[in-house]
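Posting this for the archive.
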Amino acid sequence: METIYPEVEVKLISNDGNAFAVIGAVRKAMRRAKIDPDKIKEFETDAMSGDYNNVLRTCMKWVTVK
């Protein structure tokens, strides 16, 4: 799977394991990288469309997760 925004890096280790905290960390990194707000909304919708594993898979699909 190819990452959509590989230049956007998010450190999730030692972050709160809550799904909303994970999504928030990625959203914050995307905003800092000046990603189009419509794309950020698309990421959020995709991430919230399933369970916790879906959140993690979606994050790895959209950004580089460390």
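The chain has one domain: 5-65. Strands lie at 5-10, 63-65.
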